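call fold(seq) -> tokens
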Amino acid sequence: MFNLRVVLLALSSVLALLFGFVLLSPESSLVAYKFSSYWVTFFIYGVLVFAICRTYQVAHVKSAAAWMVSEGKLLFIIYLALLNVFLIYEHWGFKTIMDEPLIMCTSQGLHFDRLPLTPWRAYNVEGTYQTLVSLLDKRPIPFAFLISLVHDLFGYNIQNAYVLNNIIGALTLILCGYLGYRVYGKWGSIIAMVSMAGLPIFVLYGNGGGFDVFFIFLILLTLILALRWYETSNSFALIAFIYAGVLLCQSRYEGPIFAAAIGISLLYKFYADKKLQIPWFIVPVPLFMMLVPWIQNVFKVNEAFWELGSRPEAESVFGLSYFFPNLGKAIHFMTEFGSYYPNSPYLAILGTIAAILLVAKGAPRLVQIVKDQPGAVVWISFAGCLLGHFLLIMFYFYGQINEEPLFRFALPIFLFFVICTVGLVRIFDNKYLNYSVVLITVFGFIHYSIPTMAKGEYSDRNIYARMSDWIGEYVEDNQDKNYIVVERSPMIWFAHRISAMNVAIANLHYQKIKYQLTNQFYDDVLVVRIFSQDRSTGEWMVLDDDNLHPGFELENIMVERFQPFYAIRVDRVVDVDLDAFTEESLKTSEDDNATEQAGAHVEDAEIFQYDEDKKFAQEYYLNLP
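ret:
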């Protein structure tokens, strides 16, 4: 029988494949992404909210409220207590080196121009902040889009990202509790909520400006909407599930891996019902998915976006040689009991045991389980993709999740542990096992999670996060000044809408800085750099990326020491010696600037050698009088 929707869906799929992978050059696809991504994302969010409202109608809301009053009071009290922990044990601020400032800068472009562009040169000119050069960043925009909506409602403010992440984190806890309740009632809900709230990494990034908690939220939301569709076969539930899945695939670089879970869930439901259900809203979805391959073309246009330069020993982006070293570091990160990492060893160990027991118990009767409970397909496929995500990171050259910038890669595998732990009590349904799991979960929360989050050792050790906090305080204290900053990665200053440039640009355009000094366009031209101290000689050395040309004459303003061996130094440019600049030095600056513009934000690898730093820090404290 002829079905117009099936034909149109097939046509849109073919067009998506052609325009996503074949017909457009990488450069052309990035232009298409630049001008279409905001409006496509706007439409996706709009349809998702509409479909959720239609599938969960007023009657459902009333029944949920009635349940909360009659049966859910205890869970609500526990939720409020856990939410309090989530909100108080980590301060607002950027938690990663480059992701969060760049996401904030992208939200600027979406807010002011409806374009996903990140400023590369931006200055306060005659009282007006103007972006002169913008670049298309490699990071997907769904989270930056939400931040831009908050900007639209309340005005641009860097703290909007932190408020939004707090809201998303609170909703994530609710979704965890809801899923736990679906699986095993009150006990399942308690296990899920306590496990997630007791995960320091979740609390850490839930108070930051990145999209890592948002990614977890979308996984849970898509999973819930899939289960909703399996229960009701309602077309609006299907639309909500598909559109949430589209956002999930677009939310992070690794997001497309969950297309497998979405596809398996769809195909099995259609097979079980012997009916192909295609609402009109589903027809254009393949076209929306073109955003995924389009933005991936930034890596083809310039391979430096992979940031291989940050790991000189890396020969390729993915490789078998990375797997076992990364896996060893991941196991160390997940099971370390020293409060040195934002991990949850109780959850990791319990979740691993639960996963093994679930496979041993369920694998022999998998077919029967799926026949009796079709929704099991959704759970298994999403759990499989969470595990697949972890394995993918293990093959990644940047997959050392025990290092500070990469802690966030562990969030999905801990969500996998939460799902397995709740699934364990459901499958075995033994009261002694249930009590044991609940006691271990609560004990781990009290014994390990609370003290670890209270110490915040992993936050104190992150000098870049502390530097971003210092920058925020500096901007707040100097609102009445008009100054320009020279800094290795000026994105943090751009996020605060402060005139800035990187060191390579300053070295290259020294004559313009001389002109600005002569004509006093700015109250100050500041140079902000990170210095490391030689442990043997005590000499302070500037990091390689902060090497400002010696032709700039500097006057020190302040030094802020973040750790025993790292400090941030602020200098004022008082003059520029034009004769000191040679052709060779200018050529070096041109190469550095080209590398920066290519997106290779190279970090000093020694900063992240935590074991070595910890040893020297201990010696430092031992030698205090």
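Residues 595-610 have pLDDT under 50 and may be disordered.
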